[in-house]
Specification:
The complex is a heterodimer.
Chain A (H helix, E strand, L loop, with lengths): L14 E9 L4 E10 L4 E5 L6 H8 L7 E6 L10 H4 E4 L11 H12 L4 H9 L15 H13 L5 E5 L7 H16 L3 E6 L2 H7 L2 E6 L2 E7 H6 L6 E5 L3 H9 L4 E4 L4 E5 L3 H10 L6 E5 L3 H9 L7
Parallel strand pairs in A: 3-7, 3-8, 5-6, 6-7
Antiparallel strand pairs in A: 1-2, 1-4, 8-9, 10-12, 10-13, 11-12
Helix pairs in contact in A: 3-4, 4-5
Chain B lengths: L1 H12 L3 H28 L13 H6 L2 H9 L3 H21 L3 H7 L3 H37 L9 H27 L3 H30 L11 H8 L11 H25 L4
Helix pairs in contact in B: 1-7, 2-4, 2-5, 4-8, 5-7, 5-8, 5-9, 7-8, 7-11, 8-9, 8-11, 10-11
Classes of the chains: A alpha/beta, B mainly alpha.
Chain lengths: 312, 276
């Protein structure tokens, strides 16, 4: 664009949150929070209910005024972006359209305000597969269609940065799979994708990086595999054998910790599966099952946020 | 700013609000026209409807002058018309919170002052549109009524056109008040009810209170009708300055002051408010 507006590819698309704080009357909803989100990756923004995820996103988007601290996108505060929706697309609430307005008109209103051509509304609707329902009123949309319309609105300006608050809410399995592919594609194109959610199994499939907060504070930030890997000490080996006592005795020599599980299963920690197998072989113990149980994002999340999720 | 105003007008056009309010306005306009027809008859020929000589004071006689009877007819519909444009103004703001579209609006335009100004302009455009339609209807029907009462159309009188113009200003200003109400009271129902009560109860209450006070403390009290917006805007639409009432320009000045005040307070509130 030659008129001095930020083109979609201008700016690095990095999101920097530094010292962000929001006090409501008695609650520190967000408490001196700092993190960085890189472009070209999908970042999961995780936290228990009431952790301050939505407040953080709203401060990032200039909808809520921070008590202290600042947040920038490509080095600029949202309010100072010359043409915000050409740079940042955001989906914050599922139901953010007038119930009596058609889907296409909802998008045209945004186009008019942003000075985008009217055709962008049709293009964005096609992008999310909602063209057949263009002239239906918003109140007739299913929850999944509402989410798609929200994403269409966010994509109107072909933004470099995408921010989504709980986008999987209300989507059916097919819709969730579509969303996963859609967001991964956007990240692969070099865009920044920040997604808040508490669907952890979905996040493990979708996100490259995670930012985990609890009680308004940062708990952990990093690549998903690193964060999960950091909890490797919680890995357990599941063993099923008809000779429990012999195996427990054999494993004792390897400093393994053995706990009884449900249905006669033994849960072994402190050693890896080959060690358990070799110990069993040496002791001539018959094994019926030998499985490594690695921690998943959900387990890690619960471990990291334990005791911090209290209602405040 | 042009694109923001276009967006605001598109918001109104793409819902059924405008034609529902239009349909509402039309029968109310007809009702007031009927009332004004009878009132014109009474003013032009008091004896025919049995108004005793003793009650025909100076103000009554002034109101009975042809030009003032005509002005009343050419500005017919103001009482409910401004009420409806005010409610439209209320809805233009409260819809954003009721339907949670405020987030999208302020994401698209983080400069909130611009959003409020665009809403003020869009509401004013609507107000003026309602004025154009009602004035058009009045210009067709009022000469017919006047000629049936053996009075000329009076359209050669400057006072008539002044009254029509000031009536338009009243429509514009009431739509601005509507925006102010909508900003001050975010709840759609709350804002609508408050605006309605302020207008109707303020109108009737002020008339009663002022006439009681005037009986007690003298006619100068009647000048206080200026500070009641509903009365001030009616004052603007009289043909000539009536004896015993404040001048029309004063009514207009007070209305403009109210509009500036509500517009400014509204903008300041929206700038500070957290949208969640």
């Amino acid at each position: 664009m030659s008129d001095g507006r930020l083109s979609p590819t201008a700016g690095n698309g990095q999101i920097v949150v530094s010292g962000l704080t929001k006090h409501y009357r008695n609650v520190r909803a967000v408490d001196n929070l700092s993190f960085t989100i890189e472009p070209g990756r999908v970042t999961g923004f995780l936290g228990p209910n009431g952790a301050g995820k939505t407040t953080t996103l709203r401060m990032l988007l200039n909808l809520v005024t921070p008590t202290a601290g600042a947040a920038t996108i490509s080095g600029i505060r949202y309010a100072d972006l010359p043409d915000p929706i050409r740079h940042v697309g955001a989906v914050l609430e599922a139901s953010s359209a007038h119930k009596g307005r058609t889907g296409i008109n909802h998008l045209r209103v945004v186009c008019a305000a942003a000075g985008l051509p009217k055709q962008r509304a049709d293009e964005a609707l096609a992008l999310v597969g909602l063209s057949p329902a263009a002239k239906r009123k918003f109140k007739g949309y299913s929850l999944g269609m509402k989410q798609r319309l929200g994403i269409a609105a966010a994509m109107l300006g072909d933004p470099k940065v995408l921010i989504l608050d709980e986008p999987a809410n209300g989507l059916d399995p097919e819709g969730i799979r579509w969303m996963r592919g859609f967001l991964k594609n956007l990240a692969a194109e070099g865009r920044t994708v920040l997604v808040s959610s508490h669907l952890l199994s979905e996040m493990q499939l979708l996100a490259d990086d995670v930012v985990i907060i609890a009680a308004g504070k940062l708990v952990r930030q990093g690549r998903v595999d690193e964060v999960v890997g950091s909890m490797a000490h919680t890995t357990r080996i599941r063993v099923r054998t008809p000779q429990s006592d012999e195996l427990v005795a054999a494993l004792a020599e390897h400093d393994a910790k053995v706990e009884p599980g449900e249905g006669g299963v033994l849960l072994v920690s402190g050693v890896d599966a080959p060690t358990v197998g070799r110990a069993a072989l040496a002791a001539k113990v018959e094994l019926h099952e030998l499985t490594t149980e690695r921690p998943d994002l959900e387990g890690v999340f619960l471990e990291l946020t334990a005791g911090k999720a209290a209602i405040r | 700013m042009t694109s923001l105003v276009r967006s605001e007008l598109l918001k109104i056009r793409t819902t059924n609000t405008w034609w529902v309010f239009g349909l509402l306005a039309l029968p109310l306009w007809g009702l007031t026209f009927l009332i004004n027809y009878f009132q014109s008859q009474a003013l032009l020929d008091p004896a025919s409807v049995g108004v005793p000589e003793s009650e025909q004071n100076a103000q009554f006689q002034a109101a009975g002058e042809h030009v003032n009877v005509a002005a009343n007819l050419y500005t017919n519909g103001q009482f409910f018309g401004v009420l409806i444009v005010m409610l439209l103004g209320v809805i233009v703001v409260t819809n954003e919170f009721f339907h949670q579209t405020a987030t999208t609006t302020f994401l698209t335009t983080p400069r909130r002052t611009s959003v409020v100004v665009a809403k003020l302009i869009a509401a004013a455009v609507l107000g003026v549109l309602f004025w154009v339609v009602t004035t058009g209807l009045n210009l067709i029907l009022a000469p017919l009524i006047l000629s049936s009462l053996d009075v000329g159309s009076q359209l050669d009188q400057g006072a008539i056109w002044q009254a029509i113009g000031l009536n338009g200003l009243a429509y514009l200003l009431w739509s601005v008040f509507g925006i102010g109400f909508g900003v001050l009271i975010r709840s759609q129902i709350g804002a609508t009810v408050t605006a309605l009560l302020t207008y109707l109860a303020g109108y009737i209450g002020a008339i009663i209170v002022l006439s009681i006070l005037a009986d007690r403390f003298g006619d100068w009290i009647n000048n206080l009708q200026l500070i009641v917006p509903a009365l001030a805007s009616q004052l603007m639409a009289t043909g000539t300055d009536l004896p015993g009432t404040p001048p029309r320009w004063a009514g207009a000045a007070v209305m403009v002051a109210y509009a500036v005040l509500t517009g400014t307070i509204g903008t300041l509130i929206v700038r500070k408010r957290d949208i969640s």
